Amino acid sequence: MSPADDGVLVRAAAEGDQAAWDALVKRFGGLVWSIARAHRLSAADAADVSQTAWLRLVENLGRLRDPDRVGAWLATTSRNECLRIIRRSGRQVPTDLDLDTVEPTAIQAPPVDAGLLAGERDEALWQAFSAISERCQRLLRLLIADPPPSYEEIGDLLEMPLGSIGPTRARCLEHLRRKAGITTASGGSE
Amino acid sequence: MAENQQHPDEADARLLDDLRSVVQRADPVPAPVEAAARATFIWRTVDAELAELAYDSLLDADRLAGVRGDDGPRVLTFEGPEFSVEVEVAEEGSGRRLVGQLVPPAPARIEVRHSGGLLRLGADEVGRFATGGVAAGPVSLRCHVAGADGPPLDTAWVTV
Fold it and tell me: What is the β-pairing status of strands B84-92 and B128-135?
């Protein structure tokens, strides 16, 4: 689906077409959820962010300046809601400085239903992903979001200079690789 | 698990693909969240004016930096074409209490739309209103200003 198709869906939904709305939710629900989870919100807070972002879109359907870019609009709206929730909880919003900070072991990966992850490698990757720095998690979440935001959008969302996304991506993947034990030689992860 | 023979870019791209697959399976959008997102469409209105969120004390840099006290309730200001709505949000058990003011002052009928349903209340002759019993979560106020012929004013949805 192209951005122009997204614009068609937005305009149809603005005219009252529930099917077009459902299609928008199907297409961007994962992106909104990824952003909330990338900010390490609980499932309940992430659900509130998602709900608020979609309600915002409902009330702005006929007002979007650029309906073709509804994905970016949803991403920004979701991020702003995440920041409010983080501020409300008194948590610090992570900055560039803590890129390499390893998450305290007290923060466990969210439990996963048995059978969802096939095999040790998947499990190791999921555990490793939960253990790398928050900022790395946020960047990687955006990079694997479906549909993926552009680098420019990612830069805006993470307040990161465009030129540093590539190098940061490489560093974060290296952290992930090390944590998961996917290494070139000895394979020790700790 | 040997990826050492690949070009680093390829290895990175493959690792991202693997991660995408793992995260999509381990942390999918919960079905109730997706259903709730679809259901938000019932709130669509064609005739309401929108009062955008213009100020949120939670995002106030001075307040965050401790220049101003951070003890008071959260303050939200919504700005519409003709009226603004100022709302203080206080925690009340697991829910929220809202105390607000229409500016310029005017009596109004107000519907508080929240995840617990709909609360109807009135703003008095100087535009003040208050209500408890608001569920934590997304909330929006629909204001019908007395004597105004125009459409109602909806405040932007915000999580309280």
Answer: unpaired
Distance CA A161, CA A159 (A): 7
Interchain pair A51, B16: CB under 8 A:
no
DSSP string, B105-149: ---EEEEEEETTEEEEEEE-TTSEEEEEEEESSEEEEEEEETT--
Alpha-carbon gap, residue B42 to B46, rounded angstroms = 11
What is the rounded CA–CA span in Å between residue A45 and residue B30?
13
pLDDT, tens digit, for every residue of A113-133?
656 667 788 889 999 998 998
Asked if A33 reaches chain B (Cβ–Cβ under 8 Å), the answer is: yes
B50 vs A63, A87, A117: nearest CB: A63
Least CB–CB distance from A87: residue in B43, B46, B58: B58
For residues B100 and B140, the answer to whether their CB atoms sit within 8 Å is no
**A129-176: pLDDT as tens digits:** 989 988 899 899 999 998 888 999 999 888 899 999 999 999 999 999
> Is-contact A34 A148, C-beta < 8 A?
no
B61 vs A: CB within 8 A? no
